[in-house]
Amino acid sequence: MKINNFMTAQLTTVFLLLFGLISYGQGQQGVSIDKIIARVDNHYILNSELEDMYAQYKAEGRTAPEKCQLLESLIINKMLLAKAEIDSVIVEDKEVDGELDAKMGYMIQRFGSEKNIVEAYGKSIDNLKSELRQQVKEQKVVEKMQRTISGNVKITPNEVRKFYNSIPKDSLPYIPSEVEIGHIVKLGTVTREQKDKLRQQLLDLKQRAEKGEDFATLAQIYSEDLGSAKNGGDLNFAKRGAMVPEFEGAALALKPGEMSDIVESQFGFHLIKLIETRGAEYHARHILLRPDYNKGTDMTEAIRSLDSLRKLISVDTLKFAKAALDNSEDKETAEAGGLIQDRNTGLARLTLDASMDPALYFAIDTMKVGDLSQPVSYRTEDGRSAMRIIWYKSKSEPHTANLHDDYEKLAQIVLSNKRNNALEEWFKKAQGDVFISIEPEYRNCKVLGLAQADDM
């Protein structure tokens, strides 16, 4: 068996396709009988999983790998999961929930609102999250296993130099223009008028509940937390620390049956009713109303703050990286000094071509290297309106790869190869620790170098 670059990429791609597979499946007509095509210990691979992965490539206009390659990638993931169970590798629920919330935030950005997601899929947010939760958990376990296997692999400058010198000069890759771009993001402020309106709406609902109307029915009708609304706002039992502090503090201050005052959190405005407490857990319902970030957001303070930062940076009183770290509300880039990273490579260098975010591409098209833009509109990944200033830090000219300019890229390749070798050695040993069985119709794939396997 040889773990090549395709296989390594597939360890992640399997999960990146999760949302696409759900989307693809919505429009399909007819029902076919599914079946198990492979098994790794107690983990099964269904024919529908393989077919959906293959179909998703086609639907996106990409060249689909051979089905044998896709099956191998699925089996490798199941091997990692099976060995994680054997080795007691655990991922905390809080980590899974955080990743799931991030993915749902991406979906909200893509569809515009939770309501649009519900209408598109015909399922509540709660049901969609339930379907995806196990898959996200598997993703996190696989990632943790990969780190366990190859996370300690290191490389030296000498290894990078040796790799570069081993490439024939006429085979060195051509590197297109790349840019380094930073931004500082400030979120818009929900207007006082809109906040007052939402508070009053919830106070009216509270009064209706106090006069005898059923809280659960009001939640079903009015709550904008569509996942819990269908269950009358029921959030089930939550462990302490699971909810945002504002919500949890208000809920735990109540006695069973009591309703809270109006509570503001990062998600909007809540009216909470405590049902019961049980040890370190509590059970509550809520009605959530969200601000309209498109129509009810005031950008005055965001623009003022960015203008002030821009002036300080322009006269070199404040370094951009420091300003981003201390002020940007895009926490992911703030910790990197405001630099926007390529999600595939993890490097703060973006290829200057059609693959770049169009908003960035057209923004820097009118800028010169070193320029700092005026505040411009920005939409965050979770769909909130914001403003940002953009720093055009650097641009490289197209060139043939060389050790001086492309050391980071070459180092990434060397590190990837070394990690692949570590994974390959691990898989050789792991095959003896897990039971792998493949249906006869896929035996000719010779998955993981297995020419055949026992019947399931």
UniProtKB/TrEMBL annotation:
UniProt-listed InterPro entries: OMP_Chaperone_SurA, PPIase_dom_sf, PPIase_PpiC, Trigger_fact/SurA_dom_sf
Keyword Isomerase listed: yes
Pfam families: Rotamase (PF00639)
Superkingdom assignment: Bacteria
Domain PpiC residues, every copy: 176-276, 279-376
Gene3D superfamilies per UniProt: 3.10.50.40, Porin chaperone SurA, peptide-binding domain
Coiled-coil ranges (or none): 118-145
Molecular function GO labels: peptidyl-prolyl cis-trans isomerase activity
Protein name: Peptidylprolyl isomerase
Species for this entry: Dyadobacter sediminis
